[in-house]
Amino acid sequence: MGWAARALPGLDPHRVAQLDALPRQTCAPDLRLFHAGDLAQGFAIVLDGRVEVHLSSASGREILLYAIEPGQSCIQTTLGLMGDAPYSGTATTVTHCTLVMIPAALFHDLINTSSTFRDFVFRAFAARMGEVTALLEQVAFIRIQARLARALLDMETGGAIHATHAELAARIGTAREVISRQLERWTAAGILHTGRGHIDIHDRAELRTLAK
């Protein structure tokens, strides 16, 4: 069974064949898939790997808007294709990725003629909008300390987090200097230890308390 039948159960067999016939693209990590200001050329389906979409300010600060993993969608692309609007963010592969690009003309044809495909796009769009709304609520209403503690706990693998201060700043929507100062305080308190590109958690219980 090809990817289209798995992702879109109930889709017309002719349409499944059309989608499965599209070429797969293999992308290396740290590849820019689109930049702010570009126009959407097609609807990308991530079959394997992870892509992150960031928004950047004129001063160079970044915030991680969302990540795209298999089965998820890019609302920037959906808006671009349906509203003829340029991208406002930048998408970058984080890992090796396998993608299928549905050309714009085929995307619009499927949206107009296939309720199965249309429902797939709109459900994915609604789910992604919910995530973006939750991010905006965090940035607006939750303190930096709690946001950082939550991010560290979410990113932890075996007691360690492999990320730079800049990456953490982008993830929670603040400046790198703010992250550095907070991590220094927590290191002095014995909650964690920082190294080059990694952080080791020493007191997980206290970090959970800070995340509340």
Structure report:
The protein has 212 residues and is α+β, with helices and mostly antiparallel strands. It folds into 2 domains: 3-140, Jelly Rolls (Sandwich), CATH 2.60.120.10; 142-210, Orthogonal Bundle (Arc Repressor Mutant, subunit A). Helix content is 47%, strand content 23%. It contains 9 helices and 10 strands. It has a 4-stranded antiparallel beta sheet. It has a 3-stranded antiparallel beta sheet with strand order 1-7-3. Helix 4 crosses helix 5. The chain is elongated, with a radius of gyration of 20 Å. The model has no long low-confidence stretch (mean pLDDT 90).
Give the end-to-end Cα distance, rounded to a whole number of Å: 44 Å
Low-pLDDT windows of residues: none
Shape: elongated
CATH class of the largest domain reads Mainly Beta
Q: How many separate domains?
A: 2
Helical coverage, percent range = 40-55%
Q: Strands across the major sheet, in which order? A: 2-6-4-5
User: SS-based structural class?
Assistant: alpha+beta
Write down the CATH topology of the largest domain.
Jelly Rolls
SSE run: HHEEEEEHEEHHHEHHEEH
Oligomer: single chain
Number of strands: 10
In CATH terms, the superfamily of the largest domain is Jelly Rolls
What's the gyration radius in Å?
20 Å
Mean pLDDT: 90
